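Methods, example record. To illustrate the input and output format used throughout this study, we show the complete record for lysozyme. The sequence lines were provided to the predictor; the line carrying structure tokens was produced by it.
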Amino acid sequence: MNVAVRFACALLAIGALLDHRSGAQSTAPIVKVPPNTNWCLGCICEAISNCNRTLKCEGDVCGLFRITWAYWADAGKLTVNNEDPNSQTAYANCANNEQCAGTTVSNYLKKFAQDCNGDGIVDCNDYAAIHLFGGYGCAKPYTGEYFNKFAACEKQIQSLGTGSHS
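The corresponding predicted structure is encoded as:
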């Protein structure tokens, strides 16, 4: 399967699973773009794990978004099927469930939304940095394989006309 088809499939799958949109507005004087656009979450997923839906827990990360326990907790300890968030399996069950993981990522990005690169806009580039570096370290340089994959995905989406930089 070629890369463009894989990107499109990944984005459609993420979009189908995340069936809600955020209407929240920021009081900050910078422009914010909601993090839960299909292409943004799709490109973060592609960059972090190639959107590999077979990934489970390895070390301290779980699922296709490679979520840590602390990230999951900061995002609100979402659960699958109303599981008790304090159960031993709640974190892994959510992080390994595409819909729960996608909503967790969206919640985390909304919670820590900030202009990481100083361009006056909180957009998917900032959300990609927040996802990788965390809510308190996103001003680090955007280098390495993760950001290369993210930029390639973003470019591919823009060429398809289904997303924009902001």
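Annotations derived from this record:
The beta strands are 31-32, 121-122.
Confidence is low (pLDDT under 50) at residues 1-5, 7-28.
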